[in-house]
Design goal:
Chain A: Pfam families: BPD_transp_2. Chain A: This is Branched-chain amino acid transport system permease protein. Chain A: Keywords: Amino-acid transport, Cell membrane, Membrane, Transmembrane, Transmembrane helix, Transport. Chain A: Belongs to the binding-protein-dependent transport system permease family. LivHM subfamily. The complex is a heterodimer of chains A (288) and B (353). In chain A, helix 9 runs parallel beside helix 12. Chain A has helices spanning 4-35, 42-60, 63-84, 93-115, 141-163, 165-175, 177-182, 187-209, 219-234, 239-259, 264-267, 269-278, and strands at residues 131-134, 137-140. Chain A has twelve helices and two strands. A two-stranded antiparallel ribbon of chain A has the order 1-2. The termini of chain A are far apart. Chain A has a domain at 22-216. By secondary structure, chain A is an all-alpha fold. Chain B has 353 residues and is mostly helical. Chain B is built from 16 helices and two strands. In chain B, strands 1-2 form a two-stranded antiparallel sheet. Chain B is globular, with a radius of gyration of 20 Å. Classes of the chains: A mainly alpha (288), B mainly alpha (353). Chain A binds chain B through residues 36, 38, 40, 85, 88-89, 91-95, 97-99, 101-106, 108-110, 113, 221, 224-225, 228-229, 232, 236, 265-266, 269, 272-273, 276-277, 280-281, 288, and chain B through 1-6, 77, 79, 122-124, 126-131, 133-135, 137-138, 141-142, 145-146, 149, 254-256, 259, 262, 266, 296-299, 301-303, 305-306, 309-310, 313.
């Protein structure tokens, strides 16, 4: 139970699950940061991305093509949702959030109609097979790949936010929408772009995640719960918060599943409760 | 908060001048007529199916009313209320499966309701708006997870069947009267609380938390109390529903149920006394008719939800009230004090956020 190999194995499990959570939670938190929308369709975007990714990966055997297809399809869906629905209630927080619930219902149900009820995973041809062996420890390369993807995307997001003009506009938009609009930036399209980027991150998570956990009906609510817990702990709108929250929840979840499997469902919930009671805005969050 | 659009009708009415005697008489008469019809229903040659359907509507209406109280008076949109009702139902169902009598079912239902509601309230009382919504959603998902995975207690996916209700309401029509009485009492309770000083303070907190805090109000304890009141009504509705269907399963706690409750509230009219019942009637009827013919029911539900939020946010009762006021304004001649209040910026709570 406390052997070093076992501990290392669980720690890696936790970190790789945390990496997947980060892909999921970063999109949710970015959209909230700029648009103040808790996109409750995020889980459904993940699900849609996962199904499309699995189908394309089965056809082509190429993970990159599958990810691109998922990103494009989910990105277009998100674009339609933003331009076709959310724009009509722009600035009214609660209607915005509730609309995304309706979208989530429709997407999840259509996924059930199109892809059926059986769980689906990435085909072996499209995953990275084999495992890394260091002494007594063996670990699948695929999970290490997931961690690498999350780290690359995390760094890319941080660099775009801090070093580019787009990042500057987004940061300014978070602080003061009116001023940035007055300076000649079309903030409406920045919003739209942000929503699409958030959905694309969910699609990447869905496809890559399908190599770790199967895509199935109900997965949208499950991953949404994890993502919500992560961003509540990290603080809504904070990408570093999402990173810290993901690692924390990933590790807690892995060790809880190994040590106290009966209570595993609550162990992710306990830190959220603790953070909410002590710091309602989350570890890195600003007041609403 | 940006809840202004959703609670608009309520704000207008609470800030407006006392309603005229004529409006009050019309309201009282229509309530009396509705109650008369409800009481006479089993004698009007209705089938057991119709009575059962109306019973379902009343239970859903009571549950929606508990959500409406939180959204309308408290500005707190709960996306986890189905979890509270389900907890109560599971409490009663578990007691029933242990062979306990209905009295103990009530005790267990109340116990689980209080515990679950207190946990909800404790976690969410320091949050507001979107954060409140997220926290209640997350807690609701945990209740669902519990119902699903703690199968030694809850029966897992299959749920618990064969729950017996007390003998004196075993007949479908005696149960109907019992539910009707419960609905009237629950609605009355929420109505009285809404009009008490407590209700006024709650609306004060809804409109400006910081102002109420600086006036010396303990905002979290007000929110927690409101949540407990709402939760107890929801728990009662949960008990009624498990007595009605003799069955409870995880789907009773699911996000879909909670969302349906919000749909009912918005569809009927946020902050109105009878909006939740009207909304519940529409949803239950659509659900029962559609589920027979349309397999893609969740899609239809999602689309209804989207359309309601885009186009009918005042809801049926809210829109009728607006129409009625406009009609009165025209028939009463020049605008009175009430209309001035109605159009003044102070009634728009978004300015005070």
């Amino acid at each position: 139970m406390f052997e070093p190999v076992f501990l290392a194995q669980q720690a890696l499990n936790g970190l790789s699950f945390g990496a997947l959570l980060f892909l999921l939670a970063s999109g949710l938190t970015l959209v909230f940061g700029l648009m103040r929308i808790v996109n409750l369709a995020h889980g459904a975007f993940y699900m849609l991305g996962g199904y499309i990714g699995v189908v394309i990966a089965t056809l082509t055997g190429n993970l990159l093509v599958a990810v691109i297809a998922a990103v494009v399809a989910v990105g277009i869906t998100a674009l339609v949702v933003e331009v076709g629905l959310l724009r009509f209630v722009r600035g009214q927080e609660l209607p915005e959030v509730l609309l995304t619930v309706g979208v989530s219902f429709v997407i999840a149900d259509l996924c059930l109609a199109i892809f059926g009820g059986d769980p689906r995973t990435l085909p072996v041809s499209a995953t990275i097979t084999g495992s890394l062996t260091i002494g007594p420890l063996t670990y699948p390369w695929y999970r290490i790949f997931v961690m690498a993807v999350a780290i690359v995307i995390g760094i890319a997001l941080a660099l775009v936010q801090s070093r580019t003009r787009v990042g500057a506009i987004v940061r300014a938009g978070v602080d003061d929408r009116e001023i940035i609009a007055a300076m000649g930036v079309n903030i409406r399209w920045v919003f739209t772009g942000m929503f699409v980027v958030g959905a694309a991150l969910a699609a990447i998570g869905g496809t890559i995640g399908a190599g770790m956990i199967s895509v199935r009906p109900g997965i949208q609510d499950e991953v949404l719960l994890y993502a919500l817990v992560v961003v509540i702990i990290g603080g809504l709108g904070s990408v570093p918060g999402a990173a810290v929250g993901s690692v924390l929840i990933g590790l807690i979840d892995a060790f809880a599943k190994a040590w106290i499997p009966d209570l595993a469902y609550f162990t992710i919930f306990a830190p959220m409760a603790l953070v909410l009671v002590l710091r309602p805005t989350g570890l890195f969050g600003k007041a609403a | 908060m940006m809840l202004a659009k959703l609670v608009e009708t309520r704000t207008v009415r609470t800030l407006g001048a006392p309603r005229s005697a004529r409006t009050r008489i019309i309201t009282l008469v229509s309530i009396a007529v509705a109650l008369g019809i409800a009481l006479a229903l089993p004698y009007l040659g209705t089938t057991a199916y119709v009575i059962s359907l109306v019973t379902t509507i009343l239970i859903a209406g009571l549950l929606a009313a508990s959500v409406n109280f939180l959204v309308g008076d408290g500005g707190m949109a709960s996306l986890g209320h189905a979890g509270i009702a389900a907890a109560s139902a599971y409490g009663a169902a578990w007691a029933s499966r242990q062979g306990m009598d209905p009295g103990m079912q009530v005790v267990f239902a109340l116990g689980t309701t209080l515990v679950v509601t207190f946990v909800y309230g404790l976690l969410s009382m320091r949050t507001s708006g979107i954060y409140f919504l997220m926290v209640t959603l997350a807690v609701g998902m945990v209740v669902f997870g519990l119902a699903y995975r703690l199968s030694s207690v809850t029966g897992g996916e299959n749920g618990i069947t064969g729950i017996r209700r007390p003998d004196f309401i075993a007949e479908y029509w005696t149960f109907y009267y019992f539910v009707l009485a419960g609905f009237v009492l629950g609605t009355l309770l929420l109505w009285v609380v809404g009009r008490s000083p407590f209700g006024a303070s709650l609306r004060g907190i809804r409109d400006s938390e910081s102002r109420m805090r600086s006036l010396g109000y303990s905002v979290p304890s007000y929110k927690l109390s409101a949540f407990m009141i709402s939760g107890i009504v929801a728990g009662f509705a949960g008990l009624l529903s498990v007595w009605h269907t003799h069955f409870v399963s995880p789907s009773a706690a699911g996000v879909h149920r909670s969302v349906l409750l919000i749909v009912m509230v918005i569809l009927g009219g946020v902050g109105t006394t009878f909006g939740p019942l009207v909304g519940a009637a529409i949803v239950v009827l659509v659900e029962n008719v559609l589920s027979n013919s349309v397999e893609r029911w969740p899609t239809v539900l999602g689309l209804i939800f989207i359309l309601v939020i885009l186009f009918a946010r005042a809801g049926v009762v809210g829109s009728l009230q607006k129409l009625f006021r406009r009609w009165r304004r025209r028939s009463d001649g020049p605008p009175g004090e009430q209309d001035l209040l109605e159009n003044s910026p102070t009634t728009d709570s978004s300015h005070t956020a």
